[in-house]
Amino acid sequence: MPTKQPLPADMSTPPGRDQGRQTPSVRGVPALTVVAHPQLQRVGDQLLLESLVTDGRPVPLSRNAPDFARPGGLLSMPLGDPFISRTPIQLEPGLRGGVRLQVPEDATQVRVAWEPVTGGRDFSPEELALGVPLVLADRVVLLLHRTSPTQATGPEDLGIVGQGEGIRQVRDDIARVADLNVPVLIRGETGTGKELVARAIHERGPRRAGPFVSVNLGALAKELAAAELFGAQRGAYTGATKDREGFVRSAHGGTLFLDEVGEAPPEVQVALLRVLETGEVFPVGGHEPVRVDVRLVSATDADLEARIQERLFKAPLLHRLAGFEIQMPPLRTRREDIGPLFLHFARQELEATGEAGRLSSSEPRTQPWLPAALAVRLVRYAWPGNVRQLRNVARQLVIGSRGTPRLRADPRLEQTLDADVLPVPGSPVDAPTPPAASDTPEVKASRRKPAEVAEQELLEALRACSWDLKATADWLGIPRPSVYVLIDKSSLIRTARDLSAEEITRCFHECGGDLDQMVQRLEVSKRALQRRVRELGLDA
Q1: Nearest to 214 by CA among 232, 233, 201, 205
Q2: Torsion angle, alpha carbons of 185, 190, 191, 195, to 10
């Protein structure tokens, strides 16, 4: 695979990663991005809060102002949902570059995740970097986060969904390298979309008319990997009854994408290095080299430098593969893209089931197809499987909600999305005065091991503390996470997710919607029950 550009001399030590692009920093300006909205075409719209940084002016937010727009777009409009109050909430400069949220008594109800905001709440720069989910009127979900003030987008999205800073950098890198005849190494966690980037490089480059051949080296049997890649002559090994061309030669004139390149066996690494240096392959069992003209794009989620230190990967091969590096950001660092990505995958599934019309409701007072509680779960989850996992969740939700007016998650999926989530961000501007001692049960001061708490003692403590889990933890002298564990293990105690929709609905009507009465009757956590009530649309 000859190239007109001189290649650097091999080095005995592995290269650093400064050629690649790292995940976005915490610099930038605060912004609000629409994660969920009854009018689904609004998902992805954004508002830059530049005045908080430039001159310290607060930004009022209400039903009718200010205008949100798609990044780089021209059309802008306010949130416009009729359930959002015309009385604005205020976003103000906070401490150390953070943001303060002020909610007047007569303004729209605002929740941070599922916790109501009373008065004001401060968000630190670190919390903004992770993303703060704000729920307005239990219908619209916004993500408060940081982004680059430069919002101009290129002429095309290259088939890659999202406008987060990290993914914009990936598009810029593709545009810089696509027309060059240099090898590209794409780094990133599993499921971040590395093959999608490889295809974009191919389709934007001069080899677009040639083949694009994708090979997962981790899926090839080690004893046959060389023959699969470089071809083999008849009789070269047992079962070789005819000549085999191999993936490299089948990509002649185009692009060869090698995924999981860190899994290449040693003999394959040597042969790949020869291809990169000379543009020649030796088929297994052959004696004459075969010329090939292939552009090589490779990808890995492995730490190749560490594998070099462990003598599992050859440093000269890494030098050749990494003519240019592209770093894929994990989904947890681009949470502003979760809403548009989810909607993209949901649209694909709905088109397959013939229900794409669900995404085009024009009735402003309709219940959101994507409930706010579910959208909050999506944006707070850590997504260890990244975009691939989000696509699978979108498919499961769409198929599992066929024939229903709104998306709904089954208890098992809820449990998955509730695990490994970010803590609820922010701190109250004015901390509430602690209640008088006579208003709360006496707290046991001594700390204990959770294993010392019997089931009956746990049940009695929950009842004494009105099913407030933090108060129960203090009462028992154990950490609050241990209370969750003990409840899950208990045969005497139910959780809110154990309750059927029929039982919650019946209790809601019998108690006149009084949540405290429902908690006492159903004997579950108030916060978890409140979440189930909202999901069932009973508090509308």
Answers
A1: 201
A2: 20
C-beta atoms surrounding 109 within 10 Å = 15
- Return the closest-CA partner of residue 41 out of 321, 358, 275: 358
Q: Indicate yes or no: pTM above 0.85.
A: no
Check if the beta carbon of residue 279 is closer than 8 Å to that of residue 290: no
Residue pLDDT, tens place only, 198-232: 999 999 999 999 999 999 998 888 777 888 888 77
Tokens for 174?
Answer: 């593709």
Whole-number Å distance between alpha carbons of 133 and 306:
37
Q: How would you label 351-366 residue by residue, b for 16+ Cβ within 10 Å and e otherwise?
A: eeeeeeebbeeeeeee
Q: Give the whole-angstrom CA distance, residue 115 versus residue 105.
A: 16
Is the dihedral angle over the CA atoms 401, 405, 411, 417 positive or is it negative?
Answer: positive
What does each C-alpha distance from 392 to 126, 214, 348, 368 come to in angstroms? 30, 22, 12, 21
Task: Answer for the pair 100, 429: CB distance below 8 angstroms, yes or no.
Answer: yes
Question: Residue 2 corresponds to which tokens in the numbers above?
Answer: 């000859």
Whether 279 contacts 181, CB under 8 Å: no
Residue 202 tokens read as 């191919």
Among 326, 280, 314, 327, residue whose Cα is nearest residue 10: 314
Classify residue 82 by burial, with Cβ atoms within 10 Å: 0-12, 13-18, 19+: exposed
Strands (E) located in 184-318: 184-187, 212-216, 255-259, 280-281, 290-291, 295-300
Condensed to tens digits (0 to 9), the pLDDT of residues 373-421 reads: 999 999 999 999 999 999 999 999 999 999 888 999 998 999 899 887 8
Overall residue count recorded for the chain in this entry: 540
